[in-house]
Amino acid sequence: MSIGLACLGILTGGAGQAVSDAAKRICHSIKCKYNYIKNLDQNLNELEMETGYLSHRKKDIDANIAHNQVTMQTTNECAQWLEDVLRMMEKVEDIRTRYQEVANGSRRMRLLSARLKLSKEIEEMKNSVVDLRKRMENHDVLVERPPQRVEKKFPKNIYEVPSLREHVEKLLELLKDDNIKKIGLWGMPGVGKTTILENLNNEVDKLQVFDIVIWVTAPQELNLRQMQQEILQRLKERTDWVEHQNKANLISQSLANKKYLLLLDEVFYKFDLSHIGFHDKCNGKVVLATRDKTICNLMETDEEIKVERLSRDDARKLFHSASRGFIEPIAERVLKQCGDLPHIIRAVANYLKDKDKEPVWRGTLSKLQSPNMHQLKHMEDVFNPFKVILEELGGIKDCLLYAASFPQDHEIYRDYLIECWKAEQLIGVGETFRRIRDEGHITLEDLIDKCLLDACKSSKCVKMPIIFRNTAITVANEHRFGLLVTDMELGCPPVESWESAKRISLMNSDLVELPHEPDCSEVSSLLLQKNENLSVIPPSFFDSMSTLKILDLCGTGISSVPPTVSNLTNLQGLYLNDCCRLVHLPQQMQLLKKVELLDICRTGLCTFAAVIGGLTSLRCLRVSFTNATVGNRNHIKVSAEVTPLGTIQQLSNLEELTIHVNLRDPEWKEIEPDIAKEVATLEKLSNLSFWFTSTASLETFIRTSKSWKNGSSQAGSNFRSFNLIVGSQETESPRLDVLKCTGPRYLQYSAGSDIPTVSIIKKVLRITSAFELIGHGNITHFSDFGIDVMGCLEVCLVERCDRMKTFLGCQKVTAFPCLRELHLLRLQELKAINEGVIPSGSFAKLRTLTLYDCPEIIKVVSWDTAKQLCQLQHLRVENCSKVEEIIATDNQSCGIGAFPKLKILELVMLEDLVRIHSDNSFEWVDLQQIEIFKCNNLVDLQLRAENAKKLQCIQCSEVWWLAMAMNGKVEANLQDSHPHTRYQCKSVTLSSIIFSQKSIRQATQYQSGAFSPFSGADKLHNLASWKQWPSNNSRNSMLLFLWDWIKKIGDDN
């Protein structure tokens, strides 16, 4: 053929080259077609092989789905892939059929043409099968919703401390690297490691990488069992049936299909993570904080970050902001002595706050420069400043040292700590319990302000910073305070160590038995609570403890108290609460004439022991009453036979009385009037928790109670606190946090039918700070109780009052000036919150407003009311089926002045809700977070860049979000439609959109930073997915909002 082509070139002269090229192309085409025809069978075999691989992959995925279908579900991508595989299999089957037809064909030329066409299709089909199989190689097949992705911490603010902030940012970057599994954070105590981890814990969610973040504070003495228990609780796994050796497997299985981040704080020893349940093959990462870099090496971390002490500029800024002053040049020298440790800087600065005299600063500097009295590894920069602060505490120094007797990172109940202080005579010697509690809370706030104690999330608790606790124990023993403390489940320490101890704390230490006759001639506090395996107290155990003042056996497994308890002649506080096996108190307890506090709540006692009546010095009694049915013998039985009348009235010194009653107890109604009469005889009561079964019983108590009258100008004002339940008891405990109130006085009134204007409840309301009204049958306006008697009300909950039309009726005087929280629940006839125009100053302090299941309300608030709610920060409206509008529209409505401080808006299950407000110029001055769920008719939130500048998060149903129509302009200019898109904006930022679909929540993050127009990699790279979303001619206001925002920022630049 080449010779022929050459001859053809000679014959054709100059045109030969063109003809030659054409001939080559023809030959190549013929050759390709020939190969297709020739390789038909081979191509089919290759297709069959790739189809087999695809089929096996599908079977593996189907098996995986079937195996995990109870707890998991397929991803949307996987579901689409499975559908595509089925369609692909149909196409392959069609290819097979057509191949058989071609193979059986008879006409030669027609057969060649068919073979050529089919062979081409088979090769293309093979490539499609390969591509389809590879689509799921690096994608999740199953997803599940974790118990809670992140449990928020409450760390110190570090945005003004770049030295610490940089570590958080670096950790966030390292966590993005798939090759890094373990990160070590190391540095000396007090340098800020825990603060960095807490900030990381709160911010890591924006990466959208981890299904769950687990925080564990490692025990100071290695204890894997305790760590496993904390982790299993975090994962919400039941462990009562799991043996210790199987807990690691349970943790491993629970995390098998999760991307997790384990944050380990205060790691003192090397240990194998696999022994806890974390394996290298697991899809997770670990960040650990330790004092020693050696621990990082032993734990085989991939990256180590040393946390240096603060830079001098950062330390200076922190010191200056905390001390509110800076006396040069002494301040620089004081700051240097603080070791550039943030916690120490805050403590010393708080001590020097507002002190502008040089002698004070020079004196402080001199004390800080004094030689250490005790050397501790890594603690040189902690000990001296802490010592100086302790010395300046004066009389409350021992109060702080006593707080060190509780386990590391332990949340201490404020009232319990105050009771211990009182029994140890550290505060309030000779004072009443009322004054002692007031003094104790003042002391606690003082210690918190000085950064020596930390306030907990629960307002009931405090805890001592870990950085100070070890030093406090050392200082305590230096000052002969005599602390013997064990933190872990190490059992009972050697008996010899008890001899010199004054305060022994073995709580939650897995004690099984106690020494028979320890030499404890100086001990004043013995804290043994939460040792459930401790079942017996040896008879001779108390023989040499005559100095003991506090004995805490709460939560132990004891069934009785030995008669030798009578040897504790100086005992003042005895805690037996939650000893569910305790069934007997010895008669010898009557000899404890100095006991002032007794707690026997939730025990196994079935009788109100007569010995209690002999405790004539008792000032605080806490007890539980219930019908002791079979299987529920955990409280004192209610009946006249086993609850001897006259016992309570013998306790003439009683100041605090708590009687817990089971809400299902029918026998309490029979004995309650007699018990109430006895309580009324007590003259010194200042704290009462009691269930009055009727208003008549309450009225009798108020009329006859010596404590309620007590010669004061306002009846009941002598009570520092109370927890009174009147009527058919609906709940065992308040749902309102009374500790948020200025005075913890709580009243619940349920199933009432009296006329509010003349109700005895009015007399109690005058001094009530938290009030729950439940199931009242006659009230039409809550204000019918009388505006004049509710001036002290701070928190209010109203539920199931089926005739209530409004919360506030027509009024001409200021109403509810101190109310901070209002919850309106299940009010079937509620038409509005208020009737008419509310007087100026009403609801002036209201911060939280909740409406739930109020089916008749149409407009939540009027425009005038919205302007009055100038302090409202949180508004939640849920399951109110007729609500059409949140803020009613009227002729005076305008976009300025309503809800100026609203931060959180939650709208849930509002079927008829059409809009929040009709005015497009409405200003959301402080709005930061919105939740929208099952509000399908709400199509316009009226959000723009100009009217919601602080908005950070929109949490909504993905169906609701996607169902909105999209404007083409928005579609063309938004960066990316994928839920993990990031937007870079200047100054003002919408930080996240959180989609909720079934059990999956995905977050869209929009991060702040320097503005840069979308270009290069920042351009639309997933535009195809926008095309698949629903679209019509109507405008999607939410997406317009995003586009307006971005466009405005671009215009400004």
TrEMBL record:
<dbReference type="InterPro" id="IPR055414">
    <property type="entry name" value="LRR_R13L4/SHOC2-like"/>
</dbReference>
<dbReference type="GO" id="GO:0043531">
    <property type="term" value="F:ADP binding"/>
</dbReference>
<feature type="domain" description="NB-ARC">
    <location>
        <begin position="166"/>
        <end position="321"/>
    </location>
</feature>
<dbReference type="GO" id="GO:0006952">
    <property type="term" value="P:defense response"/>
</dbReference>
<dbReference type="Pfam" id="PF00931">
    <property type="entry name" value="NB-ARC"/>
</dbReference>
<dbReference type="InterPro" id="IPR058922">
    <property type="entry name" value="WHD_DRP"/>
</dbReference>
<keyword id="KW-0547">Nucleotide-binding</keyword>
<dbReference type="InterPro" id="IPR050905">
    <property type="entry name" value="Plant_NBS-LRR"/>
</dbReference>
<dbReference type="Pfam" id="PF23559">
    <property type="entry name" value="WHD_DRP"/>
</dbReference>
<protein>
    <recommendedName>
        <fullName>NB-ARC domain-containing protein</fullName>
    </recommendedName>
</protein>
<feature type="domain" description="Disease resistance protein At4g27190-like leucine-rich repeats">
    <location>
        <begin position="821"/>
        <end position="941"/>
    </location>
</feature>
<keyword id="KW-0677">Repeat</keyword>
<dbReference type="InterPro" id="IPR032675">
    <property type="entry name" value="LRR_dom_sf"/>
</dbReference>
<keyword id="KW-0611">Plant defense</keyword>
<dbReference type="InterPro" id="IPR042197">
    <property type="entry name" value="Apaf_helical"/>
</dbReference>
<feature type="coiled-coil region">
    <location>
        <begin position="115"/>
        <end position="142"/>
    </location>
</feature>
<dbReference type="Pfam" id="PF23598">
    <property type="entry name" value="LRR_14"/>
</dbReference>
<feature type="domain" description="Disease resistance R13L4/SHOC-2-like LRR">
    <location>
        <begin position="545"/>
        <end position="702"/>
    </location>
</feature>
<dbReference type="InterPro" id="IPR057135">
    <property type="entry name" value="At4g27190-like_LRR"/>
</dbReference>
<dbReference type="InterPro" id="IPR002182">
    <property type="entry name" value="NB-ARC"/>
</dbReference>
<dbReference type="Pfam" id="PF23247">
    <property type="entry name" value="LRR_RPS2"/>
</dbReference>
<keyword id="KW-0175">Coiled coil</keyword>
<feature type="domain" description="Disease resistance protein winged helix">
    <location>
        <begin position="406"/>
        <end position="456"/>
    </location>
</feature>
<dbReference type="GO" id="GO:0005524">
    <property type="term" value="F:ATP binding"/>
</dbReference>
<feature type="signal peptide">
    <location>
        <begin position="1"/>
        <end position="16"/>
    </location>
</feature>
<comment type="similarity">
    <text>Belongs to the disease resistance NB-LRR family.</text>
</comment>
<keyword id="KW-0732">Signal</keyword>
<keyword id="KW-0067">ATP-binding</keyword>
<dbReference type="InterPro" id="IPR027417">
    <property type="entry name" value="P-loop_NTPase"/>
</dbReference>
